[in-house]
Amino acid sequence: MSFSFCKQFGKDKVIFVTKEDHATPSTIELPAPEPAEGVITKDGNINWSCPCLGGMATGPCGVDFREAFSCFQYSKAEPKGSDCFEAFTKMRDCFQLYPTVYNKANGGIDDDDDDPLADALPVDTSSEVPVKEDQPAESGAPAPPAEVVPSQTSSAVEKAQ
């Protein structure tokens, strides 16, 4: 005849059971599971660890995100959040400084990982080098601010001349 027993290994407690112990159904009653909390807790606070925020509350712009989100959540203005323009502008500016972290549209992959500001400058199409706004592109026309100059095919260049 075999019997059950317990053995302590440091902080761990190991329980050895027999086949007969498993033959009877358990009499333990577990409490009903609580519904998972969302972004807003029962007491009205913001749950910053909610996976629904996708980690936006942390990282290089986490503080700016939390300020903008809090402003919107607790806004009494009509329409809601209309008093949060500065906070959202600050958050957006921070996101633009870290395109590889916050650009989820292309999976967080950026073409130019070395310079986070490269996307903010116009590109000279002949060399794919960012140019300053006051510096004209090689076509002779000034480059538009904060846009990429579209590359031209040789036939389009010939027609323009």
UniProtKB/TrEMBL annotation:
One cellular component GO annotation, for this chain's record?
A: mitochondrial intermembrane space
Q: Which domain of life is it from?
A: Eukaryota
> Where does it live in the cell?
Mitochondrion
Can you give the residue ranges of the CHCH domain?
61-96
Which UniProt keywords are given for this protein, alphabetically ordered?
Disulfide bond, Mitochondrion, Oxidoreductase, Protein transport, Redox-active center, Translocation, Transport
* InterPro entries registered for this protein in UniProt: CHCH, CHCHD4
Q: Which Gene3D superfamilies match?
A: 1.10.287.2900
Give positions of region: Disordered. 105-161
* Pfam families with a match to the protein in the record: CHCH
Q: Which residues form the signal peptide?
A: none
List the molecular function annotations (GO) for this entry: protein-disulfide reductase activity
Q: Does the keyword Metal-binding apply?
A: no
Q: Where is the major localization of this protein?
A: mitochondrion
Tell me, what is an example of a GO biological process annotation in this record? mitochondrial disulfide relay system
Question: Could you tell me where the Polar residues compositional bias lies?
Answer: 152-161
Would I find NAD among this entry's keywords? no
Q: Which PANTHER family match?
A: COILED-COIL-HELIX-COILED-COIL-HELIX DOMAIN CONTAINING 4
Q: From the Swiss-Prot or TrEMBL record, give the protein name.
A: GL14028
Name the gene behind this protein: Dper\GL14028
